[in-house]
Amino acid sequence: MNIFNYMKTYDYEQLVFCQDKQSGLKAIIAIHDTTLGPALGGTRMWNYESEEAAIEDALRLARGMTYKNAVAGLNLGGGKTVIIGDPKKDKNEEMFRAFGRYIQSLNGRYITAEDVGTTVEDMDIIHEETDFVTGISPAFGSSGNPSPVTAYGVYRGMKAAAKEAFGSDMLNGKIIAVQGVGNVAYHLCKYLNDEGAKLIVTDINKEAVNRVVVEFGASAVEPNQIYNVECDIFAPCALGAVINDETIPQLKAKVIAGAANNQLKDTVHGDILHEMGIIYAPDYVINAGGVINVADELNGYNRERALKKVETIYNNIERILEISKGQQIPTYKAADRLAEERIDRIRNSRSQFLLKEKHVLTHKL
Ligand SMILES: NC(=O)c1ccc[n+]([C@@H]2O[C@H](COP(=O)([O-])OP(=O)(O)OC[C@H]3O[C@@H](n4cnc5c(N)ncnc54)[C@H](O)[C@@H]3O)[C@@H](O)[C@H]2O)c1
Ligand SMILES: CC(C)C[C@H](N)C(=O)O
User: Fold this and answer.
1) What are the beta bridge partners of residue 29?
2) What distance in angstroms lies between residue 335's CA and the mean position of ligand 2's atoms?
3) Distance between CA 280 and CA 262 in Å, rounded?
4) How far apart are CA 7 and CA 2, in angstroms?
5) What's residue 54's pLDDT?
6) Number of the ligand closest to the Cα of 69
7) Given the CA of residue 242, which atom of ligand 1 is nearest to it?
8) Which of 98, 228, 259, 343 could disulfide-link to 20, CB 3.0 to 4.6 Å?
9) How far apart are the C-alpha atoms of 81 and 59, rounded to whole Å?
10) Mutate to test the pocket of ligand 1, among 120, 183, 264 (most ligand atoms within 8 A of CB)
11) Distance CA 42, CA 116 (A)
12) DSSP result, 14-51
C-alpha cells in the first residue's frame, strides 16, 4: 500500500503512529477530515494479520466516521484508532494510559470512544490522561456504553427501510436474520422481539447465540448459513465487507439494515443491490446512534436530548431512500452526497477570518 497515495485519493489529513515499549501499545490514529469539527471516532482493538491491514482498517473506518458524523448532523469530523493486539489477552492499564497521553498530545483534534474490542472501563482509564474521550462511565456524568443507543438507532432506521419495502414500518411478523449478536445486536434483538418480529441469528460465540435464543425465542443457524435463510430483512451486526460477490447471490432479504461498519466490500456491491431492488440502509447512517450519544457528552450529557437526536435516523433513512428513488442512484451514493454536500457548505461558510474560533468542546474545556 502506498500510504500517501491512498491518503491523497481520499483526502486524509493525518495518520499518527503511537508506540510504547513498556505497555506494548501499538496504535494508529487516522484523522480523515476536520472541516465540521474535531474528529470523533472509536478505538478498535483487534489482532490484525499485518500492520498493513491495521493501517487500512484505521483509514477506512476514519473516513466512515467523517460521513457518519456529517449525515447525523454533528459538528464533528471523522477519525478512528486501531490498537494492534488481542483484546482478550493484550490489554493493560499502562497501555490505555499511554494511549490517552498520545490523544492528549493532539490537543483536541481527535476524540475517542468505544469500538469493537474496547469497553467503558478502557475509556475510563484513557480519561485518566485526557479529556478528549467520550463513552466513559455514567459515574463521571457521561453517557457510558454506546451500544444500546446504537441498537435503538438501527431499530428506527430499519423501520424506515421496512416502510419503503413493505408499505408499513411495522415489524411484527417479519423474519429478521441477524449476523452477530454482540453488544449492539443483543439490544436490537430485544427491540425486534418486543415488536413481534421473528429472529434467526448467528454468531461465532455460542454463548451470545444462546442468550438471544433463550431470552427472545430466536432460532440459530451456523455462521455460513445466515446469508441464505428465508427472511424479510438481513441485519449485519458483526464485521465489515459481508456484502460481496459470494454473499449477494445467496440473499433472500428485501432489506439490508444492520449495525456493522463498512458492510459493502466495495461500492460496486451497493450498485448491485440497487439493480436487484434490495433496499440497503447505508451502514454509517443507520448505525450513528452510538456516536450521536457520545457526542452529546461534549455539551454535558443529557440522555433525553441524545435519544431525540437518535430518532432523526428514521428521517435520514427516509430522505436517503427518497434521493435514491428520485435520482435513480444507489442508497450508498445518496448518503455520500448528503454528507459531502454538508461538509462543502460548512467549508464555504468558513471563509471569513476569525482570530479565535469558538471550540465545539464547550463543556469539556
Ligand atoms: N458498539 C457500537 O455502539 C457501534 C456503533 C456503530 C457501529 N458499530 C459496529 O457494529 C458492529 C458490532 O458492534 P458491537 O459493539 O456489537 O461488537 P461486538 O464485538 O460486541 O459484537 C460483534 C459480534 O459479532 C460476532 N462475530 C464476529 N465474527 C462473526 C462472524 N463471522 N459470523 C458471525 N458472528 C460473528 C462476535 O462474536 C460478536 O458477538 C461492529 O461492526 C461495529 O463497528 C458498533
Ligand atoms: C461510539 C462511536 C464513537 C464509535 C462507534 N463504534 C461507531 O462506529 O460509530
Assistant:
1) 16, 81
2) 18
3) 12
4) 9
5) 98
6) 2
7) 31
8) 98
9) 9
10) 183
11) 8
12) EEEEEEETTTTEEEEEEEEE-SSSSEE--EEEE--SSH
The answer to whether 296 and 306 are in contact (CB under 8 A) is yes
pLDDT digits (tens, 9 = 90+) for 53-69: 999 999 999 999 999 99
Q: What predicted TM-score, i.e. pTM, was given to this entire model?
A: 0.96
Q: From CA 148, how far away is CA 144, in angstroms rounded?
A: 10
| Residue 40 and residue 76 in contact, taking contact as beta carbons nearer than 8 Å | yes
pLDDT of residue 141: 87
Q: Is 80 a catalytic residue?
A: yes
Closest CA to 290 of 72, 121, 110: 72
Q: How far is CA 37 from CA 32, 59, 257, 359, in A?
A: 11, 18, 28, 8
pLDDT at 21: 97
Query: In terms of C-beta density within 10 A (0-12 exposed, 13-18 middle, 19 or more buried), how is residue 365 classed?
Result: exposed
Distance CA 225, CA 98 (A): 42
Q: Which ligand is located closest to the Cα atom of residue 72?
A: 2
Residues facing 155 on adjacent strands: none
Is this complex's ipTM strictly greater than 0.95? yes
- Nearest atom (ligand 2) to Cα of 68: 9
Tell me the chain's radius of gyration from C-alpha atoms.
20
Total H helices, total E strands in the chain: 12, 12
Candidates 80, 91, 174, 198; catalytic one: 80
